[in-house]
């Protein structure tokens, strides 16, 4: 059944739409839906740019915007990120569901423009933006300009969207103004010191889970439990060497494009541990083989290939003679990696803790490594300098009302934010309001922070702990099985106003949500349709809060 036990949630409020007739609206309203803050940054810059150009505008977080105003709006600009595989970010879900409300009138007088952010490595690229675009069209709203879909390196496309939307609204030809009149400047990275690193898991060192402590004494970064940090890693040296050897190029050759050596560029500037569709599209312009074109044109095969290959695989499987500058021209800039903060600011303001699993596995007769995890777990010595940027995650913070019960459900390194939550609950002397349901493969080797969690239980910061170690018995058991085992307690906690948190991989999140639907059907007498609608309401009302990847 697991190690210890318990769970809770808030009563759902049905979504109500109150149409604001004859509402006074500015010439332009700007809305954003975001998780990591990039959409907010673009929206705020859009607001600033319109103001500088003498156009009155207002800027709102979608979650704070009164959707009943839409029939009175003139022009609405929307910046929306996609969460995972086509999901809306948490602060945009209520907005979208209200757009679909039975009482929402047609919006024939509304003009809009959408800047969608996404990751082209996912099948449903910019899915959230596409969903909102389709619903606005269904309501007869008119697009000012075509939706712009931005990939991870979004800055150039977003700037062009700001410029094009402005030029179209005020009737200026786009070539008459310079895009760089508007600037999107991300916050600067902060430099700190890696104070401590120790292995948590008892698994092999090469695939270990590590606890890291970063110094926050001088920077005084005011983070909250539930936030994460962004790190730009270096790529594995071994992979860089293999790519250069396969292409038969000179590692010391200086690139025309950036004046750095090929080796330096592949180590620090370009993404090589992951493949994306844009990389393959650009490669096809150099490598015109029919086999590569056939792969690109077969959606299912392309998805499987991208999910199981890196840049080295691409140049081995579909070889092509290239010089160094041609090769790097197909690559994307190296992507940031995001890590949940594993310490509570209320208890440990002078440090920022992380919990990172080393990604390393064998496949296709070669070894694969994760860039971010090997960089922080192996590439940095103790007391080394590390650059990072705080990413606020307000939709995954603890409830403002400290009397609210909380249920933490996760797997693996998904324990990180829960450790931070528990430290803050302990610092505030909040007792018996938290229930942890967490799992991994083996209790003997993978029980992360075991002693600390037991202490949280003993001092009543945790009311219950339930664990699911999937490989410790013949039949695999997962965290969703603990929900079924303790469904009576789950429903009791939910009736008492509990909030559920989910942290870990998307598959786990989907299985937990499916189990919740089954429990609502079996224990509350709901139909499948009613149970799924109930779950959607819980997500819309932030009774279920997710940090899935």
TrEMBL record:
<dbReference type="InterPro" id="IPR008254">
    <property type="entry name" value="Flavodoxin/NO_synth"/>
</dbReference>
<keyword id="KW-0521">NADP</keyword>
<keyword id="KW-0274">FAD</keyword>
<feature type="domain" description="Flavodoxin-like">
    <location>
        <begin position="28"/>
        <end position="166"/>
    </location>
</feature>
<keyword id="KW-0285">Flavoprotein</keyword>
<dbReference type="InterPro" id="IPR001094">
    <property type="entry name" value="Flavdoxin-like"/>
</dbReference>
<keyword id="KW-0198">Cysteine biosynthesis</keyword>
<dbReference type="Pfam" id="PF00175">
    <property type="entry name" value="NAD_binding_1"/>
</dbReference>
<dbReference type="InterPro" id="IPR001709">
    <property type="entry name" value="Flavoprot_Pyr_Nucl_cyt_Rdtase"/>
</dbReference>
<dbReference type="InterPro" id="IPR023173">
    <property type="entry name" value="NADPH_Cyt_P450_Rdtase_alpha"/>
</dbReference>
<dbReference type="InterPro" id="IPR001433">
    <property type="entry name" value="OxRdtase_FAD/NAD-bd"/>
</dbReference>
<feature type="domain" description="FAD-binding FR-type">
    <location>
        <begin position="187"/>
        <end position="399"/>
    </location>
</feature>
<dbReference type="Pfam" id="PF00667">
    <property type="entry name" value="FAD_binding_1"/>
</dbReference>
<keyword id="KW-0288">FMN</keyword>
<keyword id="KW-0028">Amino-acid biosynthesis</keyword>
<dbReference type="InterPro" id="IPR003097">
    <property type="entry name" value="CysJ-like_FAD-binding"/>
</dbReference>
<protein>
    <submittedName>
        <fullName>Flavodoxin domain-containing protein</fullName>
    </submittedName>
</protein>
<dbReference type="InterPro" id="IPR039261">
    <property type="entry name" value="FNR_nucleotide-bd"/>
</dbReference>
<dbReference type="InterPro" id="IPR017938">
    <property type="entry name" value="Riboflavin_synthase-like_b-brl"/>
</dbReference>
<dbReference type="InterPro" id="IPR029039">
    <property type="entry name" value="Flavoprotein-like_sf"/>
</dbReference>
<dbReference type="Pfam" id="PF00258">
    <property type="entry name" value="Flavodoxin_1"/>
</dbReference>
<dbReference type="InterPro" id="IPR017927">
    <property type="entry name" value="FAD-bd_FR_type"/>
</dbReference>
<keyword id="KW-0560">Oxidoreductase</keyword>
């Amino acid at each position: 059944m697991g190690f210890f036990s318990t769970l809770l949630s808030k009563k759902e409020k049905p979504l109500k739409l109150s149409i604001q007739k004859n509402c006074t609206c500015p010439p332009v309203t700007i809305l954003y839906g975001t998780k990591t803050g990039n959409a907010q940054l673009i929206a705020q810059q859009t607001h600033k740019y319109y103001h500088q150009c003498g156009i009155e505008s207002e800027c709102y977080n979608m979650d704070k915007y009164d959707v009943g105003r839409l029939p009175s709006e003139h022009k609405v600009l929307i910046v929306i990120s996609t969460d995972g595989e086509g999901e809306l970010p948490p602060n945009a879900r209520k907005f979208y569901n209200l757009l679909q409300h039975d009482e929402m009138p047609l919006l024939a007088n509304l003009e809009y423009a959408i800047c969608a952010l996404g990751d082209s490595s996912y099948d449903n690229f910019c899915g959230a933006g596409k969903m909102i675009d389709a619903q606005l069209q269904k309501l007869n709203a008119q697009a000012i300009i075509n939706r712009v879909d931005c990939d991870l390196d979004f800055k150039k496309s977003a700037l062009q969207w700001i410029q094009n939307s402005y030029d179209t609204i005020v009737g200026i030809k786009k070539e008459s103004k310079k895009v760089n009149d508007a600037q999107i400047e991300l916050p600067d990275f902060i430099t700190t010191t890696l104070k401590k690193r120790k292995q948590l898991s008892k698994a092999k060192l090469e695939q270990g889970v590590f606890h890291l402590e970063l110094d926050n004494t001088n920077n005084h970064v005011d983070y909250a439990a539930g936030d994460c940090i962004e790190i730009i890693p270096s790529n594995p040296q071994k992979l860089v060497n293999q790519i250069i050897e396969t292409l038969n190029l000179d590692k010391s050759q200086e690139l025309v494009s950036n004046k750095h050596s090929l080796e330096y560029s592949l180590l620090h500037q370009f993404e090589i541990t992951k493949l994306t569709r844009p990389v393959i599209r650009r490669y096809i312009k150099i490598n015109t083989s029919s086999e590569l074109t056939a792969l690109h044109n077969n959606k299912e095969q392309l998805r499987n290939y991208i999910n199981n290959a890196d840049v080295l695989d691409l140049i081995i499987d579909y070889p092509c003679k290239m010089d160094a500058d041609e090769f790097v021209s197909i690559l994307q800039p190296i992507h940031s990696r995001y890590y949940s903060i594993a310490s509570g600011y209320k208890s440990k303001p002078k440090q920022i803790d992380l919990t990172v699993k080393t990604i390393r596995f064998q496949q296709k007769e070669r070894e694969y490594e994760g860039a971010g995890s090997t960089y922080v777990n192996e590439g940095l010595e103790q007391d080394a300098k590390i650059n990072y940027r705080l990413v606020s995650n307000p939709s995954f913070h603890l409830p403002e009302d400290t009397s609210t019960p909380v249920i933490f459900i996760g797997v693996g390194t998904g324990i990180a934010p829960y450790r931070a939550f528990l430290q803050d609950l302990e610092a505030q002397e909040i007792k018996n309001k938290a229930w942890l349901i967490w799992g991994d493969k083996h209790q003997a080797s993978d029980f992360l922070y075991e002693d600390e969690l037991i202490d949280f239980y003993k001092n009543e910061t945790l009311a219950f702990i339930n664990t699911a170690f999937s490989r410790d018995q013949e039949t695999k058991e997962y965290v969703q099985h603990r929900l079924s085992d303790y469904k009576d307690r789950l429903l009791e906690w939910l009736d008492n106003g509990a909030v559920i948190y989910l942290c870990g991989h998307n598959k786990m999140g989907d299985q937990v949500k499916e189990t919740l639907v089954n429990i609502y059907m079996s224990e509350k007498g709901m139909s499948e349709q009613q149970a799924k609608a109930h779950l959607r309401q819980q997500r819309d009302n932030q009774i279920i809060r997710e940090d899935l990847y």
